[in-house]
Amino acid sequence: MDKVTEKTGMAYWKKIVILLCAGWITIWIYRSALAPVYPQIRSSLGGGVSDTALGSISSFYFLGYVIMQIPAGFLVDKIGKKRVLIPGFLLFAVAALVVALSHSIQMIYVGSLLAGLGCGSFYGSAYSLTAQNIPADKKSFSTAIVNSGSAVGSGLGMILSSFLVAQQGMPWQTMMYIAVVMIICMVIAFQAIIRSHKDDVAALAAQPTAAEIKADTPKVKEKVSIGTLFAPKMLFSYILYFATCYAYYMIVTWLPNFLATERGFHGAAIGFSSSLVAFASIPGALFFSKLADKYMAHKIKFIVILELLSAAMLLLTVQATSATFLLTALILYGFLGKLAVEPIIISWLGENAPQVGVGTTLGVFNFFGMMSSIIAPALTGNISDATGSKVLGFYIAILLLVVGTILFLFANLKKKRA
């Protein structure tokens, strides 16, 4: 028992779960706050800003976020989580302030790019902390709690932005100032709660590996290398995550437009129907991650079944002939999809990655996944322009999910046979 636990009665890993959930809430409040107030942003810049220019605000954010994944993961392993997280979130705070004070779309782009770079410090740090500190039998469920912060933050960001700006008439910059305050609070919390790199390494070194516990063998220090990073089972987990995120970000970006232009939804029904995916994902993530922790030897089976079921739900969404059928398929996709399977994949990854290279492995893993956030929206938009429909975009997402799942399963079956 560490000194912090003795003083407060709360285990270190539980504090980590709460802290990281709050981190995702903060990030996603920022991410989701701008889209609902695009008309106000256009007006404040004097008009004449196209929809493409406004949409590029998000593109610049994700560009910075993707660029930062591998460097941040490498730095996490070298200098520690706290030394990566705190400077990253300070940059995030400065970036949100730059966006708030911008008088041109170009300056908003600069702020968005910096915000993406700052937020890029979070993923590798967060899931290195969960992989190295949470007990194995609670890892998937705890990761699901951490991940639920993204759904909570997304909902809060859209609701607060719509209420304060659209309904109450406050300046759109209000949401950025709220984000700055929350980010500073997170920096203080990171400093107060997360162990130093020296203490973290000492605690990790003291933990026996599963092999040691089972066979009572001497500890072998694993090192991260290109060979371990891109071993077949790791490479196919990256591909699977790319496919999972591709489907998710295609849905997040284009589902409202798809419902309005191709399925006859109107007004508030569009927003309500689109939000079903996010709301359904929270109970799905908690339920399946709890099962995965209970049946730890079957995580691969959980991953494969959930991925194939989510592909089936997307297929039902496209082929639905009634609104009720379509909404049911969307709810089930949320319940079975990315946010449900992601904690189990991350838990599996933490068990299979070299312990001294978890941050680097997670950085590469999330780099592959977040590449889809750049590709999926643009490719689906191009398909829509060329064909007049987004249906082909759904089919591409379904195909990627099926192929990625089969490759992941094959790599792990091959490992078992060996």
From TrEMBL:
Native source organism of the sequence: Levilactobacillus acidifarinae DSM 19394 = JCM 15949
Boundaries of every Major facilitator superfamily (MFS) profile domain copy: 16-416
Subcellular location: Cell membrane
Transmembrane segments: 12-33, 53-72, 84-102, 108-129, 141-163, 175-194, 235-255, 267-288, 300-319, 325-349, 356-380, 392-413
Gene3D superfamilies, per database record: MFS general substrate transporter like domains (1.20.1250.20)
Main localization (coarse): membrane
UniProt keywords, alphabetically: Membrane, Transmembrane, Transmembrane helix, Transport
Membrane topology: Multi-pass membrane protein
Listed name of the protein: Major facilitator family transporter
